[in-house]
Amino acid sequence: MKHFIVALIILILAVSACGPKPTIEEQQTEEAAPEPTPVPVADEPKEEVKEVPAPEPVEETPAAPVEPVQPAPAAEPTTSTPTTSTPQTTTVAPTTTPAPAPEGLVRLGAFQRVEFDVHGNAEIHVTKGKKVLKLVDFSVENPNDKELRVVLAEHVKPEKSGQVEAGYTDLGVLEANKLMYDIPDSVNLVNVGSVVIYYMKVPQRVYALATLRTP
């Protein structure tokens, strides 16, 4: 067995020695082949790392103290008061009856000229509530025999027709033999200022007047 192993080794060595040898050209080619030149690798630019400043610390605002919420007071119970209707009383003012006018002679005045001569007095009498104008010793100049009228004027001395027209009461036509003239009950003697002998047609003219006064 030992001899067999030795023979096998010798055989292997012989086979390897009998292999093809390289030619001279192949050797020269292998010797002439330049070694590869290493390619320089450019250094990649390094990015500058900027330092980011750290954020400033934020001051914490202390929270406002929360006041405790007090419970609302309980609502007081409401008691409904029964409403009582008060009867309304209507007070009626007593009607006052105007005081009766004084009896007898209550107003008087002397006639005076305005456009024509005149003579006499004017008197207002009240008898049992009836008011009457009385012309005493009266006469007036009327050259053209015009229709004159007797009026009670509110103005105390109306020498112009406009003053008469402002407020008056017509007692009627002046007649030669008539010396008494009834005064309507609606006339308030307090508002009567004068007696006027008046021509009422256009143009109106004041012949004479008598300013009245209390006797």
Write structural notes for this entry.
By secondary structure, this protein is of the alpha+beta class. It contains three helices and eight strands. It has a domain at 104-211. Strands 5-4-7-8-1-2-3-6 form an eight-stranded antiparallel sheet. The longest helix has 16 residues, at 2-17. It is rod-shaped. The N and C termini lie far apart (201 Å).
Key words describing this protein structure:
about 15% helix; alpha+beta; about 220 residues; rod-shaped; 8-stranded antiparallel sheet
Reconstruct the topology from this structure.
Blueprint: H1 2-17, H2 24-32, E1 104-113, E2 118-127, E3 130-140, E4 149-153, H3 161-165, E5 168-173, E6 180-183, E7 194-199, E8 205-211
Antiparallel strand pairs: 1-2, 1-8, 2-3, 3-6, 4-5, 4-7, 7-8
Main sheet: strands, sense, barrel? 8 strands, antiparallel
Q: How much β-strand is present in the residues?
A: 25-35%
Helical content band: 10-25%
Let me know the average pLDDT.
Answer: 78
Give start-end ranges of low-pLDDT stretches.
none
Strand and helix order: HHEEEEHEEEE
Shape: rod-shaped
Going by helix content, strand content and strand pairing, the class is alpha+beta
- Got a strand count? 8
Biggest sheet strand order reads: 5-4-7-8-1-2-3-6
Q: What's the helix count?
A: 3
- Radius of gyration, Cα only, in angstroms? 75 Å
- What gap, in angstroms, lies between the N and C termini? 201 Å
